Amino acid sequence: MSFETITKIADADFPTAWGHFRIQGYEGVIANPLPCNDAIPAPAVRIESAVALVMGDIHAAPPIIRIHSQCLTGDVFHSLRCDCQQQLHQALDRISSEGTGILLYEQQEGRGIGLMAKLRAYELQDHGRNTIEANLELGYAADCRHFELPAEILKSMGLTAVRLITNNPEKVEALELAGIRVVERLSATVPPAPTNADYLRTKQEQMGHLVS
Ligand SMILES: Nc1nc2c(ncn2[C@@H]2O[C@H](COP(=O)(O)OP(=O)(O)OP(=O)(O)O)[C@@H](O)[C@H]2O)c(=O)[nH]1
Ligand SMILES: [Zn+2]
């Protein structure tokens, strides 16, 4: 899938508890996107959006980058079913302590299946399915995401080398494929809790996520 256009929609001042950022909104238009669920036809055109929180001088050296997929339940409600909110805070802590870096927040709720489908997947997980089985049972791929939008956004910022916070090899591959060198991978591991240990184990054992 490739984008017809990628547009920077807005760029504003953004003071936060982690320090001072610019907040930027981006939209990418994909014509004839592939469906992620054969029972749900894809629209003729899909618009993907992402927010970039940019701190400091990102051009002085390869900056720290976090590509974070939206998780309403974790990011907003502090869910302990997953590790998303801790990863988000860990990334903002790192950017804040270096005084520079970029958090790319992608609207890819539920690994791209959307919020309602993710909640249905949670129901199935309450009945014994793991996170992959639940997606498949609902007709979705295990992971519907691709990471072309963040790669294109970083390129549009003039970046050719970054330090990426992730345990997901697909994010590293996506940036390298787009011509952005990942000069360092920083671990996104958070300590497991009894409520998310099975979920984290499935990601490591069956989705190829790195342990540290
Ligand atoms: N479908 C589905 N999505 C989930 C579930 N738990 C969390 N998510 C979503 O998973 C996404 C986060 O993906 P992760 O696999 O934790 O991490 P990652 O972004 O692939 O990789 P890291 O960079 O290492 O964090 C977010 O969009 C969450 O909403 C679940 O059980 N089912
Ligand atoms: Zn989550």
Oligomer: single chain
Separation, N- and C-terminal Cα atoms? 30 Å
Count of discrete structural domains: 1
Please describe the biggest sheet, giving its number of strands, its sense, and whether it closes into a barrel: 7 strands, mixed
In the CATH classification, which architecture applies? Answer: 3-Layer(aba) Sandwich
**Strand arrangement, largest sheet?**
1-2-3-5-4-6-7
GO cellular component, one term: cytosol
EC number: 3.5.4.25
Domain GTP cyclohydrolase II: 9-186
Active site: 143, 145
Question: Could you please describe the fold and organization of this structure?
Answer:
The chain has 212 residues and is of the alpha/beta class. The protein has one domain: Rossmann fold. It is built from seven helices and seven strands, in the order E-E-E-E-H-H-E-H-H-H-E-H-E-H. The chain has helices at residues 72-76, 84-98, 115-126, 131-137, 148-156, 169-177, 197-206, and strands at 5-16, 19-31, 45-55, 64-69, 101-106, 161-165, 181-186. It has a seven-stranded mixed β-sheet with strand order 1-2-3-5-4-6-7, sandwiched between helices. A hairpin with a 2-residue loop joins strand 1 and strand 2 (19-31). Helix 3 (115-126) packs across helix 4 (131-137). The radius of gyration is 17 Å and the shape is globular. 32% of the residues are buried. Zinc ion binds next to helix 1.
